[in-house]
Structures are given as structure tokens and as C-alpha cells.
Amino acid sequence: MTDAPHIPAQHQDSMPADEYKMDPAPDYMPRHPGVGKLTGKVALITGGDSGIGRAVSVLFAREGAKVAIAYLNEDKDAEETRRLVEAEGSEALLIAGDLGVKEHATDAVEKTVARFGQLDILINNAAMQWIDEDLTELSEERLRRTMDSNVMSYFFCTQAALPHLKEGACIVNTTSVNAFKGNDSLIAYSTTRGASLAFSRSMASNLVDKGIRVNAVAPGPVWTPFIPGSMPADMVEDFGSSSPMGRAGQPWEIATAFLFLASSDGSFFTGQTLHPNGGMIVGA
């Protein structure tokens, strides 16, 4: 079992938060040499600048994919992810914009295709979360921001991508352990993750005759900018220590699930969900 690094109390007054400010830094680097599982492929990864998205971007690059990274406004994190992708010998395209706005989602897809000439893999991963323990105090503005980022962006990006996705292409959507167990302090977020799960299953059936696979990944507690950006400092300290494995997951441990589903290794998977959650739930 991987040793758990101590996570000190910390908080950032922004959502999305910045990975470069986190202590300790999330661990995103792949553990194995690439073997060309995604050679010749182009992937658009939303929320690809940091957290799980960064780990997926780097791993896909190591496996031979060219990567378009769509993100909101975290330019410093995005530039570092581009550097990491290029260090793997691949190409990266950075696309800033709010994917909860349909025009921006369409723009992200069109820029990807214009740059690389194709689109084979769509990773819908961009999201936001806030603590909301009292539903009566959840503002309409925050609720709509959560829905726009975590649900509408998935619809908009998928709508824009479908004309470019050919037989053999795939979509992988990020959901969450909270879609399965609920979370009384992340009510809006958990609701959106339930929506992304249903979206994945519905689109899998919708696209199976076209030879396009759609799956989901449902992480448990993972050390990403979500955590200091959404939780008070005292909740961040030793984050994940109450999980069955006694620690939070690291982004690299989640990225491998995305690679499996996006590569030919997962060619018989559609409508399915992988659960890298450290034992938070079993048998889902």
C-alpha cells in the first residue's frame, strides 16, 4: 500500500483552485513506460490543466496521443501541463474558456480538429464543487455554476464532438463515488455526478450502433485542486485519511482507468463505470 503523505491544513479562495499552490503537490506522473496504446490518436481533455485532467493528459501523451487541453482560466497550471505533455514527445494545444457556455465548448472542439485534423477521444472531466451542507443556503448562482460546469459542459462538448467522432472513437466521462453513495455536504456536486453517470449510460446505448464507446470513471477521494478550493482548511488536513485505505488517491492512480477505457484494452467496454475509490464503496 502506498504511504500517505501528510496533507497540512490549507485553503484557496478560488474555484477552480491552483495546483501549483498545493502542499504537497499532487502526484500525476505515470509509473510505466509508454507502449504506444494511443499512437495516432487525438484527445480533447476538458479540465486538463490540473488534477486528474493533468494526469490523464500526461499519460495519454506518453502513450502517443496528441492532446488538446481545455480549461477555464488557470493559465499557469495549463502552461505547466503543456510542458509536461511536450516533454513526453507529444503535442499540446491549450484552449481557455468556460465550457458551460455552448459557444466555448464548440470552439474547443473546432480548434482541436483545426489543429490536429481529427478527434478520436473526448474526456469530459471539467468540474467544480463547493461545500453546501444546508440546501436552503445554496444560492441559485452557485447551483447554476455547478450545473453548467459539471453537466451542461458534458452535453455541449459531446454535441460538438459527435460530427467528428468516427467508428472506434470513444468518450470517457468523469463522475464520482458521490454519485453512488451521496454526500450530505456536497449536495449540488453529487447531484451533477449522478447526472454525468446517467449521461454516460444513456449515450453508450445511443452511440453503440455507430461504433463509439462511452464509459465513465468514478473516483473516490483524490488529492486535486478541488480539495483546497472547496473545503475549509481544517477539512483539508489529512484529507482522505478516513477512507478504507487510509489515504487520498493521487491523480496518476486515476488516470490509468481513463487510459484503459480510451485504448483498445477497453474495446469491449461501453456503458460501464470504473471505480478507483480506495474501497469507499464496493460492488457498484
Biggest sheet statistics: 7 strands, parallel
Share of helix, binned: 25-40%
Specify the overall morphology. Answer: globular
Rounded radius of gyration (Å): 17 Å
Oligomer: single chain
**Share in β-strands:** 5-15%
User: Could you tell me the number of beta strands?
Assistant: 7
In the sheet with the most strands, the strands line up as: 3-2-1-4-5-6-7
In DSSP terms (H or I, runs of 4 or more residues), the helix count works out at 9
What do the pLDDT scores average to? 96
CATH superfamily: NAD(P)-binding Rossmann-like Domain
Write a structural description.
The chain is an alpha/beta fold. It has a single domain, classed as NAD(P)-binding Rossmann-like Domain (Rossmann fold). It contains 9 helices and 7 strands; from the N terminus they run βαβαβαβαβααβαααβ. A 7-stranded parallel sheet has the order 3-2-1-4-5-6-7, sandwiched between helices. It is globular and about 45 Å long.
How would you summarize the topology of this molecule?
Layout (H helix, E strand, L loop, with lengths): L41 E5 L4 H12 L3 E6 L3 H13 L4 E5 L5 H15 L4 E4 L15 H22 L8 E5 L3 H4 L5 H21 L5 E5 L8 H5 L2 H4 L14 H12 L10 E2 L10
Parallel strand pairs: 1-2, 1-4, 2-3, 4-5, 5-6, 6-7
Helix pairs in contact: 1-2, 1-9, 3-4, 4-6
List key phrases describing it:
284 residues, alpha/beta, Rossmann fold, seven-stranded parallel beta sheet, 9 helices, 7 strands, globular, oxidoreductase activity, acting on CH-OH group of donors
